[in-house]
Automatic annotation (TrEMBL):
Gene that produces this protein: psenen
Compartments, record wording: Membrane
Designated name of the protein: Gamma-secretase subunit
Top-rank lineage group of the source organism: Eukaryota
UniProt source species: Heterostelium pallidum (strain ATCC 26659 / Pp 5 / PN500)
Taxonomic path: Eukaryota, Amoebozoa, Evosea, Eumycetozoa, Dictyostelia
Entry annotated with the keyword Oxidoreductase: no
One Pfam family matching this protein: PEN-2
């Protein structure tokens, strides 16, 4: 965290923050998992095993979700025209032309 108030948080509050961010990531928000990691790792030298567990699985979840999303985007972008009306119906914006 960029503010020195980070040092005033006790271990229980930090664990609560890590847990809340970890749970929030399950609602299709993988960037929250990355925020969880960036919030703790660069500025903390000593972390409890519980916080490390949340950070480890936040990192794994971020990479898994991002990998699945990028794979889907690649498949969709390559095959949207071949899928015809179905490809257009699952599109957020229908391109003209």
């Amino acid at each position: 965290m960029l503010v020195d108030e980070d040092d005033k948080l006790n271990d229980e509050k930090m664990r609560g923050i890590a847990r809340k961010l970890w749970i929030a990531g399950f609602f299709f928000l993988p960037w929250v998992w990355m925020i969880n990691i960036l919030f703790f790792l660069p500025h903390r030298k000593v972390l409890s095993p519980a916080i490390i567990w949340y950070l480890k699985y936040s990192l794994i979840g971020f990479f898994v979700y991002t990998g699945i999303f990028m794979t889907w985007m690649g498949i969709y972008l390559v095959n949207r025209n071949k899928w015809g009306a179905f490809g257009d119906s699952i599109s957020i914006t229908v391109p003209f032309g």
